[in-house]
Amino acid sequence: MILNGDITRYYIVMISMNDPILFQDNLPDRVDAVIVGAGVIGISTAWFLAKAGISVLVCEKGRVAAEQSSRNWGWVRQQGRDAAELPIMMESNRIWAEIGEQLGVDVGYERKGIMYLARTDAELASHERWLDIARQHQLDTRLVSAEEANKRVSAAPGYWKGALFTPSDGRAEPFTAVPAMARKLHEEGVLIRENCAVRTLDIEAGKVTGVITEHGRVRSGTVLCAGGAWTSTFLGNLGVNLPQLTVRATVARTAPAPEFYSGAAAGGHVAFRRRRDGGYTIAPGGFTEHFPCADTFRYMFKFLPALVQTASVLRLNFGGDLVQRLIPRRTWTADEISIFEKHRVLNPEPSQRGIQRMRAKLVEHVPALANVPFAETWAGMIDVTPDVVPVMDTIEQVPGLYLATGFSGHGFGIGPGAGKIMAGMLRGQSPGHALQRFRFSRFSDGSSMQPGPGL
Ligand SMILES: Cc1cc2nc3c(=O)[nH]c(=O)nc-3n(C[C@H](O)[C@H](O)[C@H](O)COP(=O)(O)OP(=O)(O)OC[C@H]3O[C@@H](n4cnc5c(N)ncnc54)[C@H](O)[C@@H]3O)c2cc1C
């Protein structure tokens, strides 16, 4: 195993292509399982496979966790989940709590609670409806009074009407968590290679026999595609259709600020979360942008219910070279330089409008942060399925190929739980959870798309 660069680096800022390559293992001839993509899903799956004694190679076209898995808000959220995701998420929340002890790394996980604040009675009533799902799973979610809500986030008395609150919800530090896990797994023998795009699969007699990377071929009868926003493109080249689109989400972190609230909360179109470094991660709640591209039209029909549901928060953006980037070629051959090598890290510009909106909403709703400067802003492209819940399944068309993608704005929290499921699936074990809602065939078997509670 070859490790290059400073492995003690502690990320608090965005991971980019300017960061040195940390993981540079030689490619083996053969391995039990190959994972395409080193986000939270790929790395968590590698962890559970390695625990079971399975040899694993993780190929990452850019840097470990440099796309969604480091750029997210860091909410480890059970509250407000799709009913089918909730049991998996509850297990994932437990796993997050154990990662520190089991892997001996600090992922910044703390149970500090998540709150959905309400400015109006109608908003509160809408939050209240989710309590039924919480009760079915004995989750500690409850409605809190106006007095308690205002006290918890240091708002003026009477400002918020109340909130939905889950004390057992957590937060973790995205820029550090997955890279720290990867580093530990690597020390324990999991092979990881950055700057290693998987161009396509090696398929013989209709079955997966390995992957073809930009650095050569690796034999394996088991491949998991956990490619985040690139998955539909990757599968398209194999003739497999996955309806998947992306939206841009803009985020900021503040300079260190006095702690007025230690968990995460959203309300009045702003979301905030206390960070380990003493600042807050801020996002303009209800502000996501889609860059229309060929796939928008290709999959429009499937996405209609989600479009209707998110109409008030989704903005169409026709500018920027993102449009070019996100119109992928559908087919290429294994000996061509692929789109994955041309775009090592998807690093969209943050939206200036989004940043201004955050500032304005903080002044209006979170006075404690109104004058705290932003230390860094960034954006990430979230991959979304038509029903806003992931796919965790085998691909029948291509035996040996497995898929875990489409986590749609809430895959960081559920990542370790999903990794456990996928590792079991790759080993032919029972998943321990109902996965019907996450089957791949729902996009082609005539099922109607019923979007989960949202991004
Ligand atoms: C701004 C923002 C805020 C969010 N907030 C939250 C939150 O608070 N809580 C939460 O739970 N979730 C949140 N999410 C969603 C969460 O981050 C994602 O759902 C999750 O990280 C997805 O993980 P992943 O491993 O599937 O994808 P990714 O993290 O995107 O990883 C996929 C990896 O695959 C690699 N790859 C793709 N194709 C290839 C190839 N052919 N060869 C090699 N490598 C390849 C990519 O380079 C990438 O590194 C947020 C997302 C964003 C962008």
Count of folded domains? 2
Low-confidence stretches: 1-11
Rg, Å, rounded = 21 Å
Can you list the ligands bound to this structure? flavin-adenine dinucleotide
Mean pLDDT: 93
How many DSSP-defined strands?
22
- Helix count, per DSSP? 14
CATH topology descriptor of the largest domain: FAD/NAD(P)-binding domain
Order of adjacent strands in the largest pleated sheet: 6-7-5-15-16-17-14-20
Sum up the overall morphology in one term: globular
Quote the beta fraction. 15-25%
CATH C-level name of the largest domain: Alpha Beta
The CATH superfamily of the largest domain bears the name FAD/NAD(P)-binding domain
Characterize the biggest β-sheet.
Answer: 8 strands, mixed
Structural class: alpha/beta
Terminal-residue CA separation = 39 Å
Helix content class: 25-40%
- Just name the CATH architecture of the largest domain: 3-Layer(bba) Sandwich
Sum this structure up briefly.
By secondary structure, the protein is an alpha/beta fold. The protein has helices at 40-51, 68-71, 86-103, 121-128, 131-136, 146-152, 174-187, 231-236, 294-298, 300-310, 322-325, 339-342, 352-365, 411-426, and strands at 33-36, 56-59, 75-76, 110-111, 114-118, 142-144, 162-166, 170-171, 191-193, 198-204, 207-213, 216-219, 223-225, 245-254, 264-267, 270-274, 280-283, 288-290, 314-316, 374-384, 391-394, 401-405. The chain is globular, with a radius of gyration of 21 Å.
